[in-house]
Amino acid sequence: MENFLDNLTSFNDVVNTFVWTKVGVWLLIAVGIILTILTGFFQVTHIGHWMKKTIGSLFDKKVKGHTGEKASISQFQALCTALAATVGVGNIAGVSAAIVTGGPGAVFWMWMAAFFGMMTNYSENILGIYFRRKNHAGEWSGGAMYYLQDGLGGYKGMKAVGKVLAVIFAICAVLASFGIGNMGQVNKIVLNFTSAFNIKPLTETVLYSSGGTNVTLYMLIVGIVLMILVGIVVIGGLQRIASVAEKIIPAMVVLYVIGSLVIIFGNISRIGEAFSAIFSMAFTKEAAWGGATGVAFKTIITQGCKRGVFSNEAGLGSSVMVHSNSNVLEPVKQGLWGIFEVFADTIVVCTMTALTVLTSGIIDLDTGILPEGVQDSTLVAESFNTVFKIGNFEFGRYFIALAILLFAFTTVLGWSHYGSKAMEYLAGKAAPTAVKIYKVIFVLAIMGGAMLTSSIAWDISDTFNGMMMLPNLIGVLALSPLVLKLTRNYVQRRIKGKTDVEPMLSHFPEIQQENAKKIAETGEE
């Protein structure tokens, strides 16, 4: 068994290096830059507009209000469900791992990936809405597989290519849902929770050992509880997932940001040193970080961009599958939420994590040396303990354990929807049965994550992320002229106020006509 895992790890490392280091990161950055230029730096030139239409509209009943329709969820619910899947372990453990591996300079490249990723996510979302259609149950279905099939496949001689890429994307999405969206997240929950809230009788009851790691009764119990909770929500479908997400996500993000700000202001004397390290080590060919060996420039960029997209998922094409369920009529309006999603996830939450770590004093900003016993997985908790610790009571560790629990739990919920939609596409007419079977397997796989003793599931999911990303980015790049056309149409009508321009709402004439009629009747903006 160990030889099999060793061989699998070696093979995965080769594929992962090719997908991410050789191709993925550079394609990701290139597509983001191209879309940013094509749209005239929309995320900057229209920052007031997208802020007003997203965070500025949270008290608007049309945005937050539930439609009562089975076919869709509210725009705010779509955002929360997407954030549920993106705001996860990557925002805590992923950011600290990027800093430890790539140095503070990785944070700068994480920001750059997010800046350009805003327009990638924007483009994915408007394409998702534009090419969505109703499924067998009357619900909206959209995602990269559909704009690859009907958009890219609509070009002359590209029908087969579009279909093949759509199938590859959907297969990788299903497989990734069991890794990044399930076992990897659950494993982090279990390890952090059982460590922070240690109950000795349960921890000391070892069920078995593998690779030097003990699987305890405590891990089994936590896994069973998680499996039951996820099962209750997932079986209820998207409406229940969205309902849970809109209650947990806002409170979760606000509490984490407040906690991080307390740490940062508690160590305010180091804030200048932290920013100096981020910018000075972002461009050095061989950073001083890491002592004598240093950190290669390519590693700094790769770690920053890779962890950035691992966190916000811009370019993966995953969150499109829930944004497409929004009750919005205008494709670009949901695209604005895509910009805000990346902004909230990376520019806000990931930056809080990075500054918390870099100002805490736990890590040496000159050498990158960590204190004995501190690893990248526990770095954030130790950083919180610099302020939130009273005597032997390590409140910071408990806070981070609970944050990871909520972050990762909601990520599992969000990814269950992504996997369901990908399975729905692959199964075709057999979708109702296939999706039910998928959900059962997805819930059962939680126990696998709870009892996991190897990082192979997490590593493989990282590879499938990249394999999802490649066909999606090819599709988005190929359809960039359509993205530009949709953006110009929206700007002419909604920002410049021209009334003689016909709206572009759907690829399908019947949906275009239906939505245009609704807009004319309701005057919806």
What share of the residues does DSSP label as strand, in percent?
under 5%
Class inferred from helices and paired strands:
mainly alpha
Q: Taking Cα atoms only, what radius of gyration do you get, to the nearest Å?
A: 22 Å
Shape: globular
The CATH class, by name, is Mainly Alpha
What's the arrangement of strands in the largest beta sheet? Answer: 1-2
Between the first and last Cα atoms, what is the distance in angstroms? 58 Å
Question: Which runs of at least 5 residues are low in confidence (pLDDT < 50)?
Answer: none
Query: What is the share of helical residues?
Result: over 70%
Contiguous helical run count: 22
Number of E-type strands: 6
Furnish the topology, listing elements before pairings.
Elements: H1 2-38, H2 42-45, H3 47-53, H4 61-64, H5 75-86, H6 93-102, H7 105-130, E1 133-134, E2 140-141, H8 144-151, H9 159-196, H10 200-203, E3 206-210, E4 213-216, H11 217-235, H12 237-266, H13 271-280, E5 286-287, E6 295-296, H14 297-312, H15 320-323, H16 331-359, H17 379-385, H18 395-427, H19 431-450, H20 456-478, H21 480-495, H22 509-522
Antiparallel strand pairs: 1-2, 3-4, 5-6
